[in-house]
Design a protein that fits this description.
Subunit of malonate decarboxylase, it is an acyl carrier protein to which acetyl and malonyl thioester residues are bound via a 2'-(5''-phosphoribosyl)-3'-dephospho-CoA prosthetic group and turn over during the catalytic mechanism. This protein has about 100 residues and is α+β, with helices and mostly antiparallel strands. It has one domain: Ribosomal Protein S5, domain 2, CATH 3.30.230. It is built from two helices and five strands. It has helices at about 50-65, 80-95; strands spanning about 1-10, 20, 30-35, 40-45, 70-75. Strand 2 (about 20) and strand 3 form a beta hairpin. The longest helix has 16 residues, at about 80-95. The mean pLDDT is about 90.
């Protein structure tokens, strides 16, 4: 089990929180909460040791290419593929930005 931390610059802070996915075989849970720090912070708890570079590459592609809201993200991973991670993050962003 590893705990990884990442940080990215962000724009506005949303008003809502979101919880998507579930921890289970090949999936993950994403908890997203508003942050007033002007940053997106991410903590990943993963069952896959030695995967920090994979997570960093995925987050760089997501957060460096778009103007994301300032949120704190907790991810509880049980071996999800990068495609599933991106899907769950997009679902959570949609929830927190929905009016």
């Amino acid at each position: 089990m590893e705990i990884l931390n990442f940080e990215f610059t962000a724009s506005h802070s949303p008003d809502k929180s979101a919880l998507v996915g579930c921890v289970g075989s090949g999936d993950l849970e994403v908890l997203m909460e508003p942050s007033h720090s002007g940053k997106t912070t991410i903590q990943v708890m993963t069952s896959v040791d030695g995967s920090e570079q994979r997570w960093k590459n995925l987050f760089d592609r997501i957060f460096l290419e778009s103007n994301t809201p300032a949120v704190h993200i907790d991810i509880h991973d049980f071996g999800a593929t990068p495609g599933v991670v991106r899907l769950r993050l997009e679902q959570a962003f949609e929830e927190v930005q929905r009016g």
